[in-house]
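Design a sequence for this backbone.
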């Protein structure tokens, strides 16, 4: 070690101790660095110890990226187009199936309606029902009309109104008057229906 004897002769024993110490630390650091690099190369890992150190890419990676015909945008556009095509084909398949189901249900309902019309009596056809409705309409229009209110119904109604005014806020106290009015209305309805038959 020529540097050892030169350092001893120039600076003395203290400088020699310092020089030996710094050399051994540097050698130990180099050995640790060498082992770390060998380990990283053996496992093909990239280990970043200090995040402030700039990241460097190998020339082969840079060349590969530069010569690559597909970029991330073209790959994502291609993937997007593939997804859109799949979605479109699924939608078309679902529409076709929906049309088939709708057609089948329509055919079944039409068949049921035809069977129902055939099984009904001839007297219940829609033409006869319409004529019956028209006859009833004419009968009600030409029949007697209630122009005057029945005296008993009018008296029962006035009794209910008077009771509600007298027992304001306690409408349940007027239950007997309400029942009397209901019975009068029911009597009038029964008479009206009997006169129009």
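Sequence:
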């Amino acid at each position: 070690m020529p540097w050892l004897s030169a350092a001893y002769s120039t600076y003395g024993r203290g400088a020699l101790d310092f020089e030996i110490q710094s050399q051994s630390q540097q050698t130990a650091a180099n050995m640790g660095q060498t082992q770390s690099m060998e380990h990283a190369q053996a496992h093909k890992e990239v280990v970043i110890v200090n995040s402030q150190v700039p990241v460097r890419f190998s020339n082969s990676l840079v060349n590969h990226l530069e010569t690559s015909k597909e970029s991330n945008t073209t790959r994502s556009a291609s993937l997007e187009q593939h997804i859109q095509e799949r979605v479109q084909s699924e939608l078309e398949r679902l529409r076709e199936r929906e049309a088939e189901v709708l057609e089948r249900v329509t055919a079944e309902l039409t068949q049921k309606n035809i069977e129902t019309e055939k099984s009904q009596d001839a007297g219940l056809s829609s033409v006869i029902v319409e004529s019956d409705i028209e006859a009833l309409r004419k009968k009600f229009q030409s029949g007697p009309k209630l122009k005057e209110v029945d005296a008993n119904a009018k008296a029962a109604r006035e009794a209910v109104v008077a009771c509600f005014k007298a027992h304001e806020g306690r409408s349940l106290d007027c239950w007997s008057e309400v029942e009397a009015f209901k019975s009068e209305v029911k009597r009038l309805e029964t008479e009206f229906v009997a006169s129009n038959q």
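Helices lie at 2-11, 13-43, 59-67, 72-119, 126-142, 151-166, 175-195.
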